[in-house]
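Deviation from plan, reported transparently: zinc ion complex.
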Amino acid sequence: MDQIAVLLAPGHVPDELGGSYEDACAALDLPPVPGGYALYLLDQMNQRQTVISADTTAVRQAELAYGSGGDGYLGNARVAAAGIADVRSGWPEEFGGGPRCQFCRDPYPVWVYEGGDVEVLLGEPVLGFRGEPHPVTGSDVVGCIDWYACGACHDLIEAADLAGWRGLLERYGDPDVPMPVQSAWREFWANHRPPGPAAPPEWTPGRRRRMAYEIAAQWDAFIAVHPVDDIPFTDDLDVPALAGVDAALDAARAYLQQPPPAGRVRVYPAGGDAAIVRADGDGWSLVGRTGSVSFMLLDTDPNILHAIGWRASPSLLDGLSGLAPSL
Ligand SMILES: [Zn+2]
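Because the crystal trials were delayed, the predicted structure below was used instead.
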């Protein structure tokens, strides 16, 4: 079982979530208590769960032991039984919620195989701590469970030969694929229907924040595959003006006059004097590199990156970069 433990507390908001502590709590539908929360993101064989605990002792201690005091990812912190405030199915979208490849756990499956009706065992929530009992309370036909596959696993499935099967086992990421998983895969292997392309995930504020996080974290790689010379900029004369972008830029510029709550602007060093700047607002996220381009993401324009050129961006990003300490 994989696990990510995250400390969400005043002054300690993970980059995936972005924004202030109050913003992050609102995004997760949690009351902003002074002591903060520990989020345990559990990735088990057949499901992902988020355990939210008001007892942050374990993650704070793990962070101290970890030593860097930095990234807040504390995979070894055990879920404390005390203090659990909520147990939710799935992960927050900011942390990669949504289906994964069910063969290798790739977070971006591109194929889906329509599944048949399945009966599943129902039980008490599984929290993942050592010695935990797993009481079964019954079973239910839950309808159809589809199978998601990444491109590589899809190719092995479609090869439909012994080498493909072995390749699938190797891609699982663990030398010992549990027998229940192998059993489920064999059933799928024998009976699956033809696949279709997986639909892109629904665009939500969480998706928008996740995309802003990924662009900021992988700026150079992102620009390498999205050459700026090929991008139509919103301030190019032949690109129609978009009121949503203008309004979001105005909201970002307003931060220069009235600094937002801590966390809404994040600055990351990008070599020399340059910085990657990310700013989040209500319904928008702006991410860019000082002296270069930036991109606006809007809740009103799903899956669209609005490129902001030099005429609007440099002074704005330079100004925003002065509002937050460089991380
Ligand atoms: Zn895969």
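The chain is about 30% helix and 25% strand. We consider this an acceptable substitute for the interim report.
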